[in-house]
Amino acid sequence: MKATTTTNVFAIFILFAFISIHLPSLATAELLDTDGNLIRNGGLYYILPVFRGNGGGIGRTSTGNETCPLTVVQQRSEVDNGLPIIISSPFRIGFLYEGLPLDLSFSFVPLCTPTPSKWTLVRGLREGEGATVKLTGFYENEMQGWFEIRKHLDDHKLTFCASSNNNCMDIGVKRDDEGNRLLVATEDNPFVVVFKNATSSSYSA
């Protein structure tokens, strides 16, 4: 009993330490959608590029030897909003702020993937290939961690933070040999995004 109590106290201490590091500096860093409304924790949104004319929103596709659409990509057409995405934080708060740890997942999933289909980074599957954003549960070399939405000039970008070392990497877009716009870890070219409320939109998977 004493050991269990000590473990629980330690876990609570770690949680409050994390909150104390993240939340004070974020008190005024609220996240807004394209309508100017606060982004809800667990809400449904399209993630779109700030700069239009070079691709659309975020979706999924099959790449390499995949028989299921496991790879997260930017849609090729600028008029394609992509798929609705659930943006959620483990913190019990109603609205989201910059820098909070987040889970990103598609609300619509094919039969070949688990629900919810959360995103993660997968280390290069081929020599010379960087880390690519994919759905969880299919690759042994998945990186453990979380996503964040961070400020980038006057807009926002996505980052992935590895739990092993707290190293955070920007998410960018890279074309593969088939012309797919892969979401990948990048050092110098982040994908600058906005968030459009998808609650009232209709989509058929």
Automatic annotation (TrEMBL):
GO terms for molecular function: endopeptidase inhibitor activity. InterPro entries: Kunitz_inhibitor_STI-like_sf (IPR011065), Prot_inh_Kunz-lg (IPR002160). PROSITE patterns: SOYBEAN_KUNITZ (PS00283). Residues 1-29 form the signal peptide. The keyword DNA damage does not apply. The keyword Disulfide bond applies. Pfam families: Kunitz_legume. Keywords: Disulfide bond, Signal. SUPFAM superfamilies: STI-like (SSF50386). Belongs to the protease inhibitor I3 (leguminous Kunitz-type inhibitor) family. This is Kunitz-type trypsin inhibitor. It comes from Arachis hypogaea.
